Amino acid sequence: MPRKTAHRIFNLLIGLFSGAVLYNQLTYILTFAVLCLASARLPDIIEKPKNKYHRGIFHSYFALAASFLAFAFFSFTPLSGIFYGYCCHVLLDKARSY
Ligand SMILES: [Zn+2]
Questions:
Q1: Where are the domains of the chain?
Q2: CA–CA distance, 65 with 49 (Å, rounded to integer)
Q3: pTM attached to this predicted model
Q4: Largest CB tally within 10 Å, which of 6, 15, 30, 77?
Q5: Three-state DSSP class for 23?
Q6: In this structure, how many other beta carbons lie within 10 angstroms of the beta carbon of residue 36?
Q7: 83 against 6, higher pLDDT
Q8: Helix, coil or strand: residue 62
Q9: Ligand 1 mean position, distance from CA 59 (Å)
């Protein structure tokens, strides 16, 4: 499965699941999931992949921690789906590299 498709499917499913856990309104859940899906490719847009193991500052543990902290800080709003999607992208890339 191409990497782009894997990120999109993973982020949509995890966004729907996590949105359902975090929020109890359908509009919040869908907003969270759509933003999570939209930000699924953000790290690769910011930092173009040069090879199969592309790892720069935007795919580092620092970026992972920063995006998770931003998600935790803004988790009261479904707009935090942007940070959650970024975090999931970096996690998925790290999982696929081992
Ligand atoms: Zn990536």
A1: 3-96
A2: 21
A3: 0.84
A4: 15
A5: coil
A6: 31
A7: 83
A8: helix
A9: 7
Q: How many residues does the chain have?
A: 98
Higher local confidence (pLDDT), 49 or 66: 66
- The separation between the first and the last C-alpha atoms of the chain, rounded to the nearest angstrom, is 17
Distance CA 69, CA 64 (A): 9
Q: How far is the CA of 10 from the centre of ligand 1 (A)?
A: 13
For the segment 24-56, what is each residue's pLDDT rounded down to a tens digit?
899 999 999 999 999 988 988 898 877 777 778
What pLDDT does 44 receive?
87
The two three-digit tokens of residue 80, written as one number: 């935090």
Q: Alpha carbon of 56 to those of 14, 60, 88: distances in Å?
A: 24, 6, 16
Q: How many helices (H) and strands (E) does the chain have?
A: 5, 0
